[in-house]
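Subgroup meeting minutes
Present: P.N., E.W., G.H.
Scribe: E.W.

1. P.N. recapped why we're keeping a running log of single-chain structure predictions: easier to compare across weeks, and new members can see raw inputs and outputs side by side.
2. G.H. added today's entry (490 aa).
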Amino acid sequence: MKKKKNVSSLYDHKLHKKKGLIATPLNEALRDQIKLSSWTKERMPEYLWLGLILLHYGRKNGFVRIGNILSNISQEFPSLSHPKLSSILCLSDDDQRRIYGTICRFVDHSVLAPLTLLYRSNAFPIFNEFFFISHSTVDDRIKILCKAVKTYSPHQSNEATDLRYMGLSLLLLGGKIHVSRELDVAPRALKEYPYTDHADEKMRLYRPTIRSMEGIGFTEDSSEFCAKFWRDIGMITPCNPVKIEFGESTDDNRAFISDCQRVLEYVLYSNKERSLSEDKFDVLVGSVNYALKIFIEINEKSVGNSILGRHAVRTIIEVYIILKYLLKREPKQPQIWQEYKLYGISKYKLLLLKSRETDLNEKSHFVPLIAEVIVNEIRWEEFIDVDLKYFDKQGMREKSIEVDEKELYDLLYDYDSSFSHGLWGAIRESAMLRCDNPNHRYHAVPDIHSDQNLPEVVSDATRILKMIFSLLGEVSEIPEWFSKKYDRNK
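Output recorded in log:
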């Protein structure tokens, strides 16, 4: 995958081992100084009244009318540094009338009428005195507001940049922005932007310049005003959940499953003596069969597009890495196979001990009697200690590194672990839908009826299962036809 522009690579990030943190370059350099601010969430609602004018009259005519309005406001109210609606609404009744009168000299009062749906007469009587229109229906006003919000929300769009320029206008008109003579682009951008068409090549320099300057002096806290804006406009419009369709696997894996089963039967019958007494053989064949059974469930239960499919792939990967790790460690730790079995049994023993100290639900899927038989299968439980650490004192990440499978761990195991642990990224992808409503800021809504499926896991599961059988073939003879038919590299 090619490196994406305008974002840092993993190599660019800073690792802090003691903190357990991988920091972005920006956070690393500016953590104590940077203050994040959202155009859409925190500033756009303040300037939407100007956006309605631009939408109604078009860019060229709208700039002229807004320029006249703001020029008058700048002269009469030099203390206003930004054309924020919240600041205007807080002025005295007389001052509000003066500003609204100025607006109505240059634009028809119907242009701002949609805002009376959000700023009602009981709380904002003067605003409604000028802009409320009785024959303007609720649906009409909602439609215009929705169009405006959708138009100006994307912070880098041409339309949003126009509105952001307007946010700077009072500072420009009041002579409160001073630009160094050594700068070339900024003075030209501030002077020429409203008169330059977006198709002009110069705008490729002007637009980012305007966006970088727009937040200058925006120090007043608008959080309460903007929060009310988003709450009110969100409550009057419905959610529009959108799902992504992923096709199910069209591969017929029945032949592959049958061949895998035939291989295991061959290995078992060819090594009956080993199966009677050898821990290594138990672990190898048992683990391979466990992975195969999981794959069969993926296939037969059609869960490849589901959350459970990701749980399954994670387990298959873990089986593969563990087997590869055990095989690598065996020369120096001949007893590692029995140690691995006892480690797993000790986990069962801990559950068994806890179950004996509580009243377990009779319908629980943990059955103490079965666990007791398994725990005492190798040796009496009184001689089995409970191991609370990772097996062999290394986590899966360290094991994957030791057996040269770090990439598999990073790209798939870690991803699927998010689903096993119920982390937010996995929840968001699988259990929440994007609401395609700009008035809701494209929030996520629960996928209550399971409309959203996920990309199919069968291809990855098949590949890893081939790798597991390849491992089995390294330590136990398997039919040559299987190795040729199912090359792990295909």
